[in-house]
Amino acid sequence: MSEKLNALLTQVNDELSFIEFVQALAADFEEEKELELSQPKLPYSTGTLGWENGSIDSMLSAAAAWGFSTAMNPSNKTKEQNPWRRCAHILYAGKFYE
Description:
mainly alpha
C-alpha cells in the first residue's frame, strides 16, 4: 500500500485527487492496524508500514507540527505550490513525523 500511497501523493492536484489520497491514507492506516494485530511491533518502533503515530490525535498533532515546521522554514524544498498537494503532504507527514 505504501508505494501506491506515495504515487497518489504525487498525483494530488485537485479536490477529487485529494479525497482519493485521504481514502488511501485511511486504508494504509487500517492495514497497519491489521498487521499490528497479527505481528505486534516492539515498543518505540515504527509499524510495518511506517506509521509512527497510532491514534488519530497523535497523527493529527504530528501532521500539524510538520506543517508548521515546514511552513516556517523559508528554505524548505518540500513546500508545495498546489494547496491540495500541500494539504496531502501535511496529512501524510502525520504518518511518520514525531
